[in-house]
Protein: Prepilin-type cleavage/methylation domain-containing protein
Organism: Candidatus Methylomirabilis limnetica
Amino acid sequence: MRRHTRAEGYTLVELLIVLAIVGMVAGGIVGVYQVSQGIYTRATALEDAQLGARAGLDRMASELRLIGSYWVGASCAPLPNCNAITAATPTSITFRANVDDSSVINGAEATPSPTTTGNSVPLSITAGQTGDAFKVYQNPADNDYIYIANGGRREVKQITDINGSTLTLASALSSPYSAAGSLVRDVKIITYTRNASATSTCPTLTCLTRTQGGSGADPIVDNVSGLTFFYFLSNGVTPTTDPALIREIQIDLTVCIKRTPAASCQDPDSSSRQMTTRVKPRSLP
């Protein structure tokens, strides 16, 4: 009796068909993954750009609102320029303000101690607290100022030296100030702009920087591709370039995150966010 056997398994044609189907499915999955990954990466970059722009605007706006604080209304003689805003260009702004209230130590006011005359001001706070509140630098033009007031008398003087708790001023006070009823504050010189030269972390013109006195430029936000200031009179409409007349400031800040260093912000793969805010300094008349 003859036995018939049947071969088991797949033919070559069947295997090729299966491989083709698997390849098509896998290719579709990879394609979907790549598209999804690209969307996720771009969305993350856009979020980072928006967060960076928002952080930079918030930091600048909070300090620009303080322009002229503990400065406007005080005598600044013999300074040649009493403007709270000392320089205002489309790409940078420099101003004087009490931005940190660091002459109030743990809630305690710094006061003259004892009655102060001339160009020497001993303070009621410790030497360490004095050094934290007031700064002098290699370039005397960058030094902090002291605001001192009592009743209707108000003066600002630039500091030339700090010795313990005693400040030496560039010029003498116009009248004596007693400890009772006197108010003392520190006034800083602040500049916001983009970095003009490259650093280890910031290629040229890619970081928003903040300079306080002569301490050097500190990067605040990276990946910055644009920073523009606009200045207006008190009506908020008429533009001005005169620092003495500025009453409202508009800031346009653009942050651009590129996929590659050689890419431009106009490339489809780059993620860019521009944000704008307007500020009215509270202390300007």
In short: Residues 46-279 form one domain.
